[in-house]
Amino acid sequence: MTSTAIEVRDLHKRFGDVTALDGIELDVPAGIVFGLLGPNGAGKTTLVRILATLLAPTSGQARVHGHDVVAEPLAVRRRIGLAGQYAAVDGELTGRENLEMIARLNRLSAREARARADELLERFDLVEAGERRAAVYSGGMRRRLDLAAGLIGRAPVVLLDEPTTGLDPRARQELWAIVAELARDGVTVLLTTQYLEEADRLASQIAVVDRGCIVAQGTASTLKAMVGGSVLTLRVQDTGRLGEAAQAVAPLAVGEAPHVDVSDGEIRLTVNDPRASSEAIRRCDERQLALVSVELQQPSLDDVFLTLTGHPAGDTPDPDHAERLQEAAA
């Protein structure tokens, strides 16, 4: 098996005047969980669709296990499993029937298809639900069944496009456990997500994607070190005075000016001095600015994303960009 499972070189994708990917460069080592972290409209799904041979790039090259996604699509499809944001199982079929049907499409014999379905129902804790129609499954069960279907062919590479979107916390934890198990079994998992906790917990390496470009790549620890200090968070009681509070503590910030979140009544700034929290309290007290809370923490991936892009991971700078991208790709 090649040491690099996915190689992407100067990959571009445009839909008319909408640029979805703008020169992506990526190397995903075999046998790890690799996270693509970014907001809606960043280009994550477009990249997954190209790697899955569902979409042709405008220019550039992408290879999966050494096979070009444009020149050798069948070879690529034999080596990948795919699960998207929404479960693609047939609701009118039982869980077992879904798996057996896909196994037969993968050219397994009827006997092999039954055995593989048994194995996957057991692995994904769906044995009791196996004879029920998928339409009555919970969201988490449908997502597990969808992932099981993507593993029918024992693919060495699995592409997971925001697999936990819309799931409740328990279902999300269950899916996280499955992803971790895949990595332990030597499967390469490319995971796209806008959940910072998810990338931090699961991915050995992370690429931060924004507006079709990779703006940083490395381990979670490496990326957090880019922030260059601790993060001081202040919550102001009177949100109407957020600007005044931000101005008061701005001299304490290292690098970027304090980030003001009006919706949360919060100010975040990077600091190097461990006494910064007490100094911030003093400065606010001088101006009779009541504080609800003061926290000094190590930087999170959210802080990394904010530092690199100027906006939180859940936001898209152009609110129409994601919608225009979806319309162009349809």
Question: Helix and strand layout, with pairings?
Answer:
Layout: E1 4-15, E2 18-29, E3 33-37, H1 44-51, E4 59-64, E5 67-68, H2 73-77, E6 80-83, H3 95-105, H4 110-123, H5 139-150, E7 157-161, H6 169-184, E8 188-193, H7 196-202, E9 205-210, E10 213-218, H8 220-225, E11 230-236, H9 242-249, E12 259-261, E13 266-271, H10 276-286, E14 291-297, H11 301-309, H12 321-329
Helix pairs in contact: 3-4, 5-6
Structure, explained:
The chain is α/β, with parallel strands linked by helices and 330 residues long. It has 2 domains: 4-224, Rossmann fold, CATH 3.40.50; 228-298, Alpha-Beta Plaits (2-Layer Sandwich), CATH 3.30.70. Helix content is 35%, strand content 26%. The chain contains 12 helices and 14 strands. The protein has helices spanning 44-51, 73-77, 95-105, 110-123, 139-150, 169-184, 196-202, 220-225, 242-249, 276-286, 301-309, 321-329; strands at 4-15, 18-29, 33-37, 59-64, 67-68, 80-83, 157-161, 188-193, 205-210, 213-218, 230-236, 259-261, 266-271, 291-297. The strands form 3 sheets. Strands 6-7-8-3-9-10 form a 6-stranded mixed sheet, with helices on both faces. The radius of gyration is 23 Å and the shape is elongated. The two termini are 35 Å apart.
Low-pLDDT ranges? none
Mean pLDDT: 87
Q: Domains counted in the coordinates: how many?
A: 2
Helical content stands at 25-40%
Per CATH, the class of the largest domain reads Alpha Beta
In terms of DSSP E residues, the strand content is 25-35%
Name of the CATH homologous superfamily of the largest domain? P-loop containing nucleotide triphosphate hydrolases
